[in-house]
Write a structure and sequence with these properties.
Jelly Rolls, Arc Repressor Mutant, subunit A, five-stranded antiparallel sheet, four-stranded antiparallel sheet, 10 helices, globular
Length: about 280
């Protein structure tokens, strides 16, 4: 089964942990896992690959990989790859709505829709390296203000990531607000609710309006987006070693046969065969 990791708290730093990635003595193939916190990887010198929710991304020098809670991922660093991993809880940024929303987007959206990989120009990389080194230095200090210092610098790191995102929908019109509200609802309710009508009703718009907004934003129909969220979680659970019976129960299907039929219809492969491919 794929383990779910929890964030172990230090007494002086209740919601952050930082790990330095040294050079390897042999190739590093980490097993797939998921966690209930956010992991920010900064690769100072990097090559290899990073699988995040069944998509493979290259590891490159001077890049940031942001892995939100719930995602299944696996890191394969090549020999000379090094850098840092910052583990923190999204709740640490509840008072900053822009950063909080940015982190929530990583949780709500598929990695194909909202990339978890950030690349920077040379000048920005030099600035990020200084930020990371300052965080690491204070993390290992006994300064009574270390928490404030670390989260202040982590904010700067996240803001640099936010600035690289292409603002296709920079103007937050009513349709964009509805779309964001829909994605939040979907993230919260996809296990219990798979009906387009139910989401449209809760948003106080027609199914036709919701479909038009979703289609414009993603190129998919509303039902395709809903089913895609269900399939993604099903793949995660299959990778975690759950049986079709357990998954059918978790995702509110009437029985395992119904789930298996749905999964094969949407992916072209049975749950059993998907599990074989992954393992």
């Amino acid at each position: 089964m794929i383990p779910t990791h929890n964030l172990e708290h230090k007494k002086s730093i209740p919601s952050v942990r930082i790990v330095k990635l040294g050079e390897l003595t042999n190739y590093d193939t980490t097993k797939p896992h998921r966690h209930n916190y956010i992991e920010l990887f900064y690769f100072d010198l990097g090559s290899g690959s990073h699988d995040i929710d069944f998509n493979t991304f290259p590891i490159e020098s001077g890049s940031v990989h942001l892995v939100s809670s719930g995602r299944v991922h696996k890191v394969k660093r090549d020999l000379k790859t090094n850098g840092f991993v910052i583990l923190f809880e999204a709740s640490a940024f509840e008072s900053n709505s822009r950063i909080s929303n940015f982190l929530f987007d990583h949780t709500c959206y598929d990695v194909n829709e909202f990339s978890p990989i950030y690349k920077f120009d040379e000048d920005t990389v030099r600035g990020l390296e200084a930020i990371i080194q300052n965080i690491w230095k204070d993390y290992n200090s006994e300064n009574e203000l270390k928490n404030e210092f670390i989260f202040s610098n982590l904010s700067l790191l996240l803001i640099n990531c936010m600035r690289t995102v292409e603002q296709v929908n920079a103007v937050q019109d009513k349709n964009q607000e509805i779309y964001v509200s829909f994605r939040k609802l979907l993230h919260q309710k996809f296990r219990a609710e798979k009906s387009v009508k139910a989401y449209a009703t809760e948003l106080n718009i027609s199914e036709k309006q919701l479909h038009k907004i979703v289609k414009t934003r993603t190129g998919l129909s509303t039902s395709e987006l809903i089913y895609g969220q269900v399939i993604l979680e099903a793949k995660r659970l299959l990778n975690a070693g759950l049986s079709s019976k357990e998954i059918a129960y978790d995702l509110n299907f009437s029985d395992p046969a119904h789930f298996s039929k749905f999964f094969k219809l949407k992916t072209g492969i049975s749950p059993k065969d998907f599990r074989k491919i992954q393992f």
